[in-house]
Amino acid sequence: MKTVVKSRKFTASLLLALALMLVMSLTAMAADDDLVYDNYDRATLSDFASSGANAAWTGGDAGKSASIDSNALKLEFGSSGWFGTGGGIDASQYKYIVIRAKGAAGGEGSAFDLNYAVGDQVKTIGKAFADLVGPSGDKVPAITKDYQNIVIDMKGNGIESGIQAFHFNFHDGASGTLWIDSISFTNNAPKEPAKDNGAATKTDEGAAAPVAEPNPKTGDTMNTSLYIALAAVSGAAALFLVFKARKANR
């Protein structure tokens, strides 16, 4: 009878240990998944439910207008206009903001500030979008006429993790058109494109080499290494507990 009770205790301990390890692994993996704030895959700006957006409201005048254009947010901005969008999100586990954007002329990042809100309090970063820094500590790439993922380092720009809203504040005298395809949070920093120093990279034939668009799911290997380590520790612990349980039954 004592042997049976002891065996059951070891079995219960084994199951509890495995359950705890599974919870730890899932918690780490959850922070590795991107949090999509808004992808604008809808017909109208206010129809948040149809695209499964985490954003829940929009406001401002953008100087001229804000609308949905080909499943992207289109901001036609004029002097001193602004646009805001917010929702009840928890970005506390994320390092980077990824804004997929393009402009009508290129260089629109110097025409506005990206501010944010925590609760009802609006926070000012204090510099133009073009002067924000990415994961490498360098300035983010300039907005161009083609879509690209612009990665913003939250800690590097002093952005609090409790962020729940974005505010685009356009400068006096500035005007133009900006498209935002999506806004998301991630821990995996996409590889930043090479800086344009005024000369295109050439191939052996003399043609300009294409610049690969960064992939938001690659780049940072830290989380992959973490999962491998967790799997190794979990496996070793499970084998040890099984060995102990079998030994107790002898």
From TrEMBL:
Coiled-coil regions, chain positions: none
SUPFAM superfamilies to which the protein is assigned, alphabetical:
Galactose-binding domain-like
What is the annotated signal peptide range for this record? 1-30
Q: Does the keyword Transmembrane helix apply?
A: yes
Q: Where is this region: Disordered?
A: 189-217
Q: From what superkingdom does this record's organism come?
A: Bacteria
Q: Which InterPro entries match?
A: Galactose-bd-like_sf
Q: Which residues cross the membrane?
A: 224-243
Question: Keywords of this protein's UniProt record, alphabetized?
Answer: Membrane, Signal, Transmembrane, Transmembrane helix
**What NCBIfam families would the database entry show?**
LPXTG_anchor
Protein name listed in UniProt: LPXTG cell wall anchor domain-containing protein
Q: Which organism is it from?
A: Candidatus Cohnella colombiensis
